[in-house]
Amino acid sequence: MSCFMISPALAFDDVIAFKRHFDGVLMVIGGGATKAAEVHEAMRRIGDDVPLLGVVLNQAEDETRAGYSYGY
Asked: Over 80: is that where the pLDDT of 33 sits?
């Protein structure tokens, strides 16, 4: 199995053009930027025949903490 990355699903028609080659999809969404309706629309375009393997939340922020650290 090969893996490749395509452009944003809603910005270009690459998803439609290449979807017959997909074994599955790993969706990367932007924390605070990607709306639920956009995720649903992207998955609609991909179709039910391509499984969603997982979701990566990129640039997530926790408003209650200024940062994080590891304690040892």
From this structure: yes
